[in-house]
From TrEMBL:
CDD domains: GAL4. It comes from the Eukaryota. SUPFAM superfamilies: Zn2/Cys6 DNA-binding domain (SSF57701). It holds the Pfam family Zn_clus. This is Zn(2)-C6 fungal-type domain-containing protein. Residues 14-42 form the Zn(2)-C6 fungal-type domain. GO terms for molecular function: DNA binding; DNA-binding transcription factor activity, RNA polymerase II-specific; zinc ion binding. PANTHER family: ASPERCRYPTIN BIOSYNTHESIS CLUSTER-SPECIFIC TRANSCRIPTION REGULATOR ATNN-RELATED, TRANSCRIPTIONAL REGULATORY PROTEIN MOC3. The keyword Zinc applies. Keywords: DNA-binding, Metal-binding, Nucleus, Transcription, Transcription regulation, Zinc.
Length: 486
């Protein structure tokens, strides 16, 4: 019987000389012993391409790949707003895998962030700046080429919109507000134009629309209101206004809007997307007192303008939002600054919570979309405020009112559904084995809450910490449950 030679996988390693001689190489460095022992010259080792490396990585230098990895690990996390991280945590990363415009924009943004965050020598700082400028230019070039193609493919349109959002954030990093506004306005105009043509439901379309709203909020907080009003390059031509009060009022509304974003972030941190509400003893972040003082100042000035003849629905809405967040920050600071902070202290502020419900009901009325006000901004602010009230207020009727408001403004919104489902489950956890309407004891209350919507499966993950005495507190004692959104 004929003997067959055993099959072995072909070896692709070894020095060049041994490969030519079809000899097994011991791969010694700097020269293999097969060559040196026979007096031959070892020609060294050729670099074997790593098939695990994606094709879009092969044209990048080591420095560029490092910045792309930094963008994945750090930049996207910091850019994620607490309403969702599906845009920065998933969609952008998917686009980086094969879209040059998004990839170059990501590298530019990463390089700019490194330049700001790290203490560097002047030479390194200049190198990072050049890298950011180079890839920003490449991204805009690719974006222009994509727009010229007039491709009707949905993926192509999403690439253009994602690139616009990243370039807007990059311009905000560089404090170039004019460029940021150009990218933001152009991108959103394209989004509205394409959304009117493509009416089919799309998860990516919802994520991109939410991202545009978030970037608009970031932009509003970065803009100096007076420069914004006086810079005619940023605003379309309009008739001159003889009434000074109207100009001051518009200035006031924009600054108030920016302060509300800061106040919302102070009350609810967002380390990795979703909501995160801390225990009663946790102090506010730095600047909490200043934010509260400014909120009160702007609220008082808005009331002054209203008393002098400004009775539009827009001004009443802004007043209601300012008062809503002033109440919340006031309650949070009062409990955190008390001698013995505890969840039970929130019971003393029932009238504050009831007032907050009245304000939220006014802001979530059915005709709110007809009001020429920043509705896309007001509604998320109110939903965030209702979540905080639903977690911290243990009054049964007030919680029922909060759930009724959230169910009324759902309209198939995954974020509102996640908030509603989480509050309902939280009530079940805290009221287990407790009679309806009875006070909830301190030991049954939840101190910390973290809510993360899972958009792929339309579910929400609720993580929480129960009450723990200070003497035996375990910061890692989290419980978790995943639920389908309603």
């Amino acid at each position: 019987m004929e003997r067959k030679r055993l099959k072995h996988p072909k070896v692709r390693t070894g020095c060049i000389t041994c490969k030519c001689r079809h000899k097994k190489c011991d791969e010694a460095i700097p020269a293999c012993r097969n060559c040196t022992s026979t007096g031959r010259k070892c020609d060294g080792y050729a670099q074997v391409p790593d098939k695990r490396t994606r094709s879009w990585h092969q044209g990048l230098s080591w420095k560029e790949r490092w910045h792309l990895d930094f963008f994945r690990r750090c930049t996207t996390v910091q850019c994620a707003e607490y309403f969702q991280d599906a845009f920065w945590g998933r969609l952008v990363l998917q686009m980086c895998d094969g879209q040059p415009a998004v990839q170059h924009a990501a590298i530019a943004m990463s390089a700019r962030q490194c330049q700001f965050e790290e203490v560097q020598t002047k030479q390194v700082e200049d190198r990072e700046s050049v890298l950011a400028l180079s890839h920003s230019h490449k991204s805009i070039t690719c974006l222009g080429a994509d727009l010229v193609r007039h491709d009707s493919n949905r993926a192509h349109k999403e690439t253009v919109l994602v690139s616009c959002i990243i370039l807007t954030m990059l311009a905000l990093f560089q404090q170039d507000l004019f460029t940021a506004r150009c990218h933001l306005q152009s991108g959103y105009n394209l989004f509205k134009e394409w959304a009117a043509i493509d009416t089919k439901p799309s998860l990516h379309k919802d994520i991109i629309e939410q991202a545009f709203s978030q970037v608009q909020i970031h932009y509003s907080t970065c803009v100096n209101p007076r420069e914004f009003l006086n810079n005619h390059r940023l605003l379309p031509p309009r008739p001159p206004q003889s009434d000074k009060t109207a100009t001051h009022d518009a200035d006031l509304v924009r600054e108030s809007r920016g302060l509300l974003v800061i106040g919302r972030q102070i009350v609810q941190s967002h380390p990795g997307g979703g909501f995160s509400i801390s225990r009663a003893s946790s102090p506010l972040n730095r600047g909490g007192i200043a934010v509260l003082s400014k909120l009160r100042l702007w609220r008082s000035q808005l009331k002054f303008f209203e008393s002098n003849g400004l009775h539009s629905q827009r001004h009443r809405d802004m007043l209601a939002v300012l008062e809503l967040w002033t109440l919340i920050i006031d309650v949070k600071m009062s409990v955190a600054d008390s001698q013995e902070p505890s969840e039970a202290l929130y019971d003393d502020y029932l009238t504050y919570f009831q007032r907050a419900i009245l304000l939220a009901r006014e802001l979530l009325r059915p005709d709110a979309s007809e009001v020429p006000a920043p509705v896309c901004y007001i509604k998320p602010s109110v939903v965030a405020a209702l979540l905080w009230c639903g977690v911290k207020c243990r009054d049964w009727k007030t919680r029922d009112d909060i759930l009724a408001l959230l169910r009324g403004c759902n309209h198939h919104s995954p974020w509102v559904s996640a908030v509603t489902t989480s509050i309902e489950r939280l009530i079940q956890i805290e009221s287990y084995d407790i009679a309806q309407g009875a006070p909830i004891p301190e030991a049954a209350r939840v101190e910390c809450v973290s809510i993360g919507p899972l958009l792929d499966s339309f579910e929400v993950q609720l993580r929480y910490q129960r009450f723990q005495p200070e003497s035996c507190r375990d910061e890692d004692a989290w419980e978790s449950v995943t639920m389908p959104c309603q």
